[in-house]
């Protein structure tokens, strides 16, 4: 009947279900049948029903009602029933289930059973879900089994001790002395289990490591026998004798030799032997080589051995298997601090990994390339990274751009090369460059006129070619505004023996105006360009009318920031030429200390509203300006400005000039006391209220 449906029939029935609801019905029906069957004490199909419950459990349905049945099966004398019972115990219960306490007695009985497989089942159960109480109660029985004549039982009991030492760390002392005798066992399974126990104890209680060091000679002998032994069919994996045991021995030796020169020296020869004799064509060999490398790196090895380890990792990078290449790159990055010279020999291979289709390998290779850069190889590596930047994935670019720039400023001695690299990065990936990078450029070129000329020429040409990258456009506009007069003469670079042709002023202004008028540009970009135009006003005399008409065109912009700037700049342009020249002069050079301390403000912080890379002036710069202006000049109409209160005039002037020297006031523009003109200038009607103070010198605006 349905009560005894076979497991495979249930699996078929579930697979035949078309919908989730249908599957739920089938499972619910079967669970009901199993529950009914469990009530019948003499049911011959109890183990079959528990097996079906295990399948139902794997599908994610509740099966807790079967827990007691597992205990009944374990108590059964028949092995097939015991086996299902133990499997159910390990899957349906965990160590916190209270029912588990009831199984302690069955486990104790089974540990003394005549059949090795029954003992094995009990040891597996303890090793898998043994609670603290079970481990404590049965530790004595498990320890007795370590001396069993049967290797299968010895192996399982050693692994069971692993669980006991994890659950009851206070019992570790009882097993320390057993390890030496277990290591002389001839069975490889027992040896692997014992080494796992040794490694676990050393990790849990590092204070035990000195007492374990005497075992290193025993381990050495074992490893030598494995390396030098001929073909052993029962332990052979791809022509290598028991790679699993070799890996465990290497790991144990690494723990014992760490920080101990004597043990490290004693195992150096065998490590060199393993490193040179292991066949790397198969995965098993690579596993041993990898463990060998980790051991060489982890102990007090001499430099020759470390170079050998790095060369093995270099060979890993040439492997066709992605996993092995990944492991090689990862480990090289870990050892880079101590063995950078040895790794440099594999630089070409590492750079090749940047072209790998697998993103995780590219990422690891990139991290390693940064570590490899030094003064002598910075140029070729930066060249490779720039090529990589042009082909890299979008999510990589931001990290890549900042790393290229930090590497070049750290390792390249030539400021020209630094400037050129940053400009190339901006040109290639302008949208992904962070503000730290854009802030670097003005600082780099601030003290050298050749660099200023080179930057102005390069960035202007980049802007002409492509004005779609807002950060590139901003920095290009800033540089043209600051050093635009240098474009009028050609720029000769001796270092690269190139000459950049002069650019006529009308071409510079028309490019800037064209970008300013583009509807695709952001407000931030337009703010930069307006400031650049007003700066060039005093330097490009023939272009003044073009600049003024561009400013006036934006005096009625719908963006208040642009409108305010354009209006203020238009008024500035009408002031006395000598005064305009002073106001539009170059930014002061940042002091070296601020630069070296990386305190250079990034464009985003120097002025939040516009992102302009202009450092706010020191108070003295404003004071000098006020001294320079003395009594404010007559206005264009010849009407003398009324003499204002000194403090008020100073504040007004600072407010008016705030745009050039630093952040402007956040509220409405201040009320300047100078009357520019009694009649408002044409085209300024929309700002009548906003700039009432500017126009008439009267009230309005929040001055100070």
From TrEMBL:
Compositional bias (Low complexity): 613-640, 680-693
SUPFAM superfamilies to which the protein is assigned, alphabetical: ARM repeat
TM spans (from-to): none
Residue ranges with Gly residues bias: 694-704
Keyword Electron transport: no
GO biological process: intracellular protein transport; vesicle-mediated transport
PANTHER family: ADAPTIN, ALPHA/GAMMA/EPSILON
Alphabetical keyword list: Cytoplasmic vesicle, Golgi apparatus, Membrane, Protein transport, Transport
Pfam families given in the database record: Adaptin_N
Domain Clathrin/coatomer adaptor adaptin-like N-terminal, residue spans: 24-574
Annotated region described as Disordered, given as residue ranges: 587-704
Annotated localization: Cytoplasmic vesicle membrane; Golgi apparatus
UniProt name for this protein: Clathrin/coatomer adaptor adaptin-like N-terminal domain-containing protein
InterPro entries attached to this UniProt entry: Adaptor_Complx_Large_Subunit, AP1_complex_gsu, ARM-like, ARM-type_fold, Clathrin/coatomer_adapt-like_N
Source organism of this protein record: Guillardia theta
Protein transport is among the record's keywords: yes
Domain of life (superkingdom): Eukaryota
Family listed: Belongs to the adaptor complexes large subunit family.
GO cellular component: AP-1 adaptor complex
Main location: membrane
Composition bias type Polar residues, residue spans: 595-611
């Amino acid at each position: 009947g349905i009560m005894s449906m076979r497991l495979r029939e249930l699996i078929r029935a579930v697979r035949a279900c078309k919908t989730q609801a249908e599957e739920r019905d089938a499972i619910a029906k079967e669970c009901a049948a199993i529950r009914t069957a469990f009530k019948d004490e003499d049911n011959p199909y109890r183990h079959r029903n528990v097996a079906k419950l295990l399948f139902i459990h794997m599908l994610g349905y509740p099966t807790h009602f079967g827990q007691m049945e597992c205990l009944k099966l374990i108590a059964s004398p028949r092995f097939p029933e015991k086996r299902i019972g133990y499997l159910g115990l390990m899957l349906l219960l965990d160590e916190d289930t209270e029912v588990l306490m009831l199984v302690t007695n069955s486990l104790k009985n089974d540990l003394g059973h005549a059949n090795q497989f029954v003992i094995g089942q009990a040891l597996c159960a303890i090793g898998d879900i043994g609670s603290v109480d079970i481990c404590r109660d049965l530790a004595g029985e498990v320890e007795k089994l370590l001396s069993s004549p049967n290797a299968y039982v010895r192996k399982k009991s050693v692994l069971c001790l692993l669980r006991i030492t994890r659950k009851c760390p206070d019992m570790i002392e009882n097993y320390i002395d057993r390890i030496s005798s277990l290591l002389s066992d001839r069975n490889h399974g027992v040896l692997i289990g014992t080494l796992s126990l040794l490694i676990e104890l050393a990790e849990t209680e590092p204070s035990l490591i000195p007492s374990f060091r005497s075992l290193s000679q025993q381990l050495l002998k074992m490893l030598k026998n494995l390396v030098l032994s001929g073909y052993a069919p029962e332990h052979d994996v791809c022509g290598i004798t028991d790679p699993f045991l070799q890996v465990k021995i290497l790991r144990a030796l690494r723990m014992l030799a760490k920080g101990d020169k004597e043990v490290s020296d004693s195992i150096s020869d065998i490590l060199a032997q393993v490193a040179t004799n292991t066949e790397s064509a198969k995965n098993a060999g690579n596993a041993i080589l990898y463990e060998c490398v980790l051991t060489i790196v982890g102990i007090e090895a001499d430099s020759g051995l470390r170079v050998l380890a790095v060369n093995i990792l270099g060979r890993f990078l040439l492997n066709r298997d992605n996993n092995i290449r990944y492991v090689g790159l990862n480990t090289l990055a870990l050892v880079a601090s101590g063995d950078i010279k040895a790794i440099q020999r594999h630089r070409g291979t590492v750079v090749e990994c940047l072209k790998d289709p697998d993103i995780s390998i590219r990422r690891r290779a990139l991290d390693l390339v940064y570590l490899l850069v030094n003064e002598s190889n910075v140029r070729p590596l930066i060249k490779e990274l720039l090529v990589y930047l042009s082909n890299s994935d979008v999510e990589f670019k931001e990290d890549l751009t900042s790393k290229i720039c930090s590497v070049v400023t750290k390792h390249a001695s030539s400021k020209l090369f630094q400037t050129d690299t940053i400009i190339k990065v901006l040109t290639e990936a302008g949208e992904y460059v962070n503000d730290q990078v854009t802030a670097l450029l003005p600082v780099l070129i601030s003290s050298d006129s050749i660099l200023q000329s080179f930057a102005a020429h390069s960035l202007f040409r980049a802007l002409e070619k492509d004005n779609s990258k807002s950060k590139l456009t901003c920095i290009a506009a800033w540089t043209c505004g600051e050093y635009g007069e240098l474009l009028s003469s050609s720029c000769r670079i001796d270092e690269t023996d190139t000459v950049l042709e002069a650019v006529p002023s009308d071409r510079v202004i028309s490019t800037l105006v064209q970008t300013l008028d583009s509807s695709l540009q952001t407000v931030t970009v337009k703010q930069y360009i307006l400031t650049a135009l007003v700066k060039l006003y005093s330097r490009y005399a023939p272009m003044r009318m073009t600049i003024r008409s561009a400013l006036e065109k934006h005096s009625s912009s719908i963006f208040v920031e642009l409108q305010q700037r354009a209006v203020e700049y238009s008024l500035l342009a009408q002031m006395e030429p000598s005064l305009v020249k002073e106001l539009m002069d170059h930014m002061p050079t940042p002091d070296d200390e601020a630069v070296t301390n990386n305190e250079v403000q990034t464009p985003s912080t120097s002025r939040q509203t516009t992102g302009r890379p202009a450092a706010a002036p020191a108070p003295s710069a404003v004071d000098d300006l006020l001294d320079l202006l003395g009594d404010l000049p007559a206005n264009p109409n010849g009407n003398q400005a009324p003499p204002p209160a000194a403090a008020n005039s100073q504040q007004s002037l600072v407010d008016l000039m705030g745009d050039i020297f630093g952040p402007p006031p956040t509220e409405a523009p201040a009320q300047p006391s100078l009357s520019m003109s009694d009649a408002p200038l044409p085209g300024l009607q929309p700002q009548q209220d906003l700039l009432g103070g500017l126009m008439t010198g009267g009230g309005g605006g929040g001055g100070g």
